[in-house]
């Protein structure tokens, strides 16, 4: 492995370790009651190291936000020839549901309660969904006019956001992961059916 590759791997490992330690502290004490300085002390790093990796405190918890924002656009851009954007998004959702993917909200009860109990984290999550909509619209605009791309992205994100919220709600209530996934299958099918009708009507 090259020196650059090793450095990047160590940087990713450090970032993940900081996020994991911070999340454990937040779960134990509450998001608002833990400072960046306390995270740095627990992780054995300088406060500046934490802020270099995570400019926003919220992203210590929502640490996969960049992948989350890019995910749907990547699905559309990388879909098979002849497959429509909505078909690709629907297929991928159910593939991810079968894997209980964290990007669909499967994160465990402690984590779900942490998010649900913090207005700051909920506000950041709303921002992330909005950023995801913008990113998806940009990819769709390569194939459609800007209005069609924007309205389609808005509908798609509304579906995903509602389904993520349903997973989180059921997780907080104590339902088992497999039980939640089973309950989500018909709800997701209903949501994507409605999405297809909306887009087709447009």
From TrEMBL:
Residues 35-54 bind DNA. It comes from the Bacteria. InterPro entries: Homeodomain-like_sf, HTH-type_TetR-like_transc_reg, HTH_TetR. Residues 12-72 form the HTH tetR-type domain. Keywords: DNA-binding, Transcription, Transcription regulation. Pfam families: TetR_N (PF00440). Gene3D superfamilies: Tetracycline Repressor, domain 2. This is TetR/AcrR family transcriptional regulator. It comes from Saccharopolyspora oryzae.
